[in-house]
Amino acid sequence: MRAFDYRAPTTLTEVLALLAQAKGEVRPLVGGTDLIPQLREGRKRPALVLDLKRIPDLGRLEYDPDMGLRIGAAVTCSAVAAHPQVRRHYAALAQAAALVGSRAIQNRASIGGNICNASPSADTVPPLLCLSARAFVAGGRGQREVELERFFQGPGKTILAKDELLVEVVVPPPAKRSASCYLRFTPRAEMDIAVAGVAALIVLDGGRQCQEARLALAAVAPRPLRVPTAEAALKGRALDAQALEEAGELAAQAAQPITDIRGGAEYRRRLVRVLTRQALEQCLAALQAGQR
Amino acid sequence: MATSTKGAKVRPSAATKGNATPAARAVSSKQAAARSSKVSPPVKKAPAQRPPAPKPAPAAAKAAPARQPPAPKPAPAAAKAAPARQPPAPKPAPAAAKTAPARQPPAPKPAPAAAKTAPARQPPAPKPAPAAAKAEPSRADGRVFRVIGQRVEKVDALERVTGQAVFGADIALPDMLWAKVLRSPYAHARIKRIDFTAALHHPGVRAVVTAAHLPPLESKGALQTGEVPIDVASLRELVLASKKVRFHGQPVAAVAATDPYTAAEALELIRVDYEPLPVVESALEAMKPGAPLVHDDLYTQSLGEKARAASNVATHIQLERGDVQAGFGQAAVVVEESYETAMVHQGYLEPQAAAASVDAAGRVTVWTTTQGAFTTKLQLCAILGLSHSRVRVVPLEVGGGFGGKISVVVEPLCVLLARQTGRPVKLVLTRDEVLRATGPGCPSFITLKAGAKKDGTLTAIVGRLVYDAGAFPGAPVAAGCVAGSGSYRVPNLRLEGYDVVTNKPRVQAYRAPGAPQAAFAFESIMDQLAEKLGLDPLELRRRNATGEGDPLANDQTLPRVGLKQLLERVAKHPCWTRPLPEEPGRARGRGLALGCWLGAALTSSCHLLLNADGSVVLNLGSVDLTGTRTAMAQIVAEELRLEPDRVQVRVADTDTVGYNDVSAGSRTTYVTGAAVRQACQDVLGQLKARAAERLEVPADQVEFRDGAFAVTGAKKKGITYLELARTSLRRGGPVMGRGTAAGLPQAPAYAAHVVEVEVDRSTGKVSILKYTAFQDVGRAVNPTQVEGQIQGAVAQGVGWALTEGYSWHRGVLRNPSLLDYRMPTALDLPFIAIELVQVPAAAGPYGVRGVGEVPIVPPTAAIANAIYRAVGVRLKALPMTPEAIFMALQGPEVKPAPVAAVAARR
After folding, report:
1. Among chain A residues, CA nearest to B33
2. What is the pTM of this model?
3. Do A153 and A240 belong to one domain?
4. A7, B35: Cβ pair inside 8 Å?
5. How confident is the model over B197-233, as pLDDT tens digits?
């Protein structure tokens, strides 16, 4: 581990100023569950570590029926997983936040960190993609807003410029008769990283007909992946067993897995098929149970 | 133990290992609130743990071991409170109770008269005692026990839960420097040149050492540090490589600096010129002619002969009896199969950590987390050329060892650097270093062929066991041969074992070293035989189970063992007799496997000091991995008729107590227990002599009863133990008891495990629904601790079975973290039920057997057998990951795409 500067400003203005002035690499810090091991192992060698936990705005978690959900970049996974409105309206996100690492890790790790670490296997990202989340970014040249789907460029790479910071994620209000679900596969029950993960969201019409469907995959591509082919195939269709099976097959085809220490490409592809079907089934079950 | 082998001059030294309850240690990281401060990483220590003395030299060194002042004891309710906590206290096993009176252990025992009358006096306490009631006495060998067999609270419980227990990383000495290790980036390379000038000039750096700083070896050969001899020349290379690096991560140099971060920076300034050499990764590849040679001067030892040409096979052993050809001729069914197990890590939570200081006179003191203070000392003296009188090793608490903390790793580097700088030096490894380079358990390739008659009687077994030792010879293949076949009577047997070197870290002992590998193969093939014969797997095992008088593979004859009693217990237990709960769409199966482990005996020593108030201090040479301090306190309390909280137990340093071998081989309660009992007898003998003087009778007419020394047979009360203790300060002087134990025979232990699994066919994931471990423990001194040992071993076994395994790419470890080296978490394990059977060992105290190792032997095969019953696929390689099971379920047509092909596509 290399020596580094450490600052813990209390306002966003200060943060942006520090980002603008910084020479060398800057790493924002919230829970540190990714960053600290990276520092210790020498995988990241920033000149400045910028602790965001003292900035009140970044710790805000708010739900409004008209505006939707606002998640400050420093909000912890625990907070999201426990939030009654998140659990009710954004089930996939609550489920994913409760899967990250372990309970102890969820108490430290932030949603913002999970996003900005830009790991292809980040659990909270596929649900956010299905939920049409937008990222609010602040920087020297002002604020900008991007679809979260466009935020990722590759493993560990985001669209953030050197002087920019993810401030907030905004999720629109849920559609009527919609349900979402996130499932992932890991060999262990906790303290593990997805071999594959699938988030699903469906919106039904009055019956069992699918008005809209969204699917996003974790850990099977260089970045979190939406599956337009499967989504299109589901749209306007009665969600019977065959439809789910086909969606699973299309999702498996869309996946671009690699073979690494956590799993083989073929196995991952097969998992995508299984998890897609199961996630869709769970969405239907939730709607039948009247959860939304 | 001396074991001769027909046709072979091999000593299958059974076992080394340790077993420890992993002691978790919460590390409280202070969130540095420092704003805008240059965070030069914090190097600090809680003041409480700092030794009181202000200077390093002898005084400080002595103060440092500072095991905290004895934490205030909880109320002396230990023995009382315990029973409430646990499920049904094991009743004296019927078998044990029956056989016991017939065979008194040879150890000193109360006069026969006393032994006989004892049971009469204490009516056989009706079961089960109400929770709050005082623990009832237990009995065995015709004796009634007050404390032995009770669930006494751990003597070190309070210091552990309050964080006061001192582990390796807690040591802080005045003016202490921190060390870091430069490791080889190659799995195999020649070291051409090392230039550390720049590192030495880096600010804060005080010394750099390489193999050139090690003195030439005075004598080569093996160091008798217990049952697995340590080859001094290999050890020297493992500490610091000299001419060649033989595995990725092998130490090449070490730096001492004012803080660990500076030391780490300095490593980057050391220039090493390597000439990379071809790497041989798999043992099977290494055995092929023309494979790259890990050692140019290694020649196969086979049947006492040394080969002419260098080879990667260090030893070829052959164990044979009967006529296997004829045996297979008599067989109605024959099964032949190959199995494979992965390299696995012991997974102790506490990394290797040590500190050393060298005083002006050159006297060395080392504080370390180790399974053996004395064996650490022997190793240090051998590779550093030091006299035994100039090295003191202070053993600290051990956060898990399991065999991995026997060989020195960090200690010699600390001593070298301390000598170089004149300042104390501390080295704590990272998890990455622990996984890459400290010595895991060995991988294996095993092929077996087994034949049986129609009724299940085994007629012959032939086996070829290839064990991968890593970079230096010493894989426990002989122990594997003996333990793997040790549960069965096999008239015709031929086992060939190979100890093979590869470019991987040198393996170390891991809980019953060599046995889980072999048991995976033997216990899988027994199930395959049972299926082919149409026999119940338990029935097949009952028909072939070994017992007293049967020979082991090395022709050693089994003493009294409890395997048959175990199998009877399983046969009647609901975990075996109840039908599997079926649910539509769920694939469930039940599996059974046995385990055998001979354990070790070796040498132990202790001192017992009598205080004037009758309390005692027990100084042990055995470090406590598993709660042995508590067990030893129970023995003292039993023998001296004290409450356990009147016994203060200390693990002494090497200047304080006699030589004591490692805490390993399931030997501590068995052998150190014998030494402790002897020390008690010594104290009682001295007190008897004093009482005799006062009573004016010969000492042999004095007996110890009801806390007093009285004339044998007389009604008069005599002189109390307390009175003698009180007057000992003046009359006759202090009383010090001495106990040593050496040369006890082994006390083999057996286990039978039954597991129920559910397999998710859609993902290949296995869930363990129910686990029941049966074990013959001889006598459980403290059943709670015994059960904890078994549960811990099963947890590790589940890891071997399902998720743990080193993954390699050209000699480089791909998963050097606990994220990707997946040990099971609490959520991955079921409740592990324990069934204790107590068939007393033929020797040793109270019929005790070693309990810590054998329970890791059966789990892998038990789980493999259960998976087979659930989904009909037999996994022959460990770990049986979800992916492996899923792919097996797809049948032969679906194979995972090779890594290269996939990578190319991307």
Report:
1. A8
2. 0.88
3. no
4. yes
5. 999 999 999 999 999 999 998 877 888 776 678 999 9
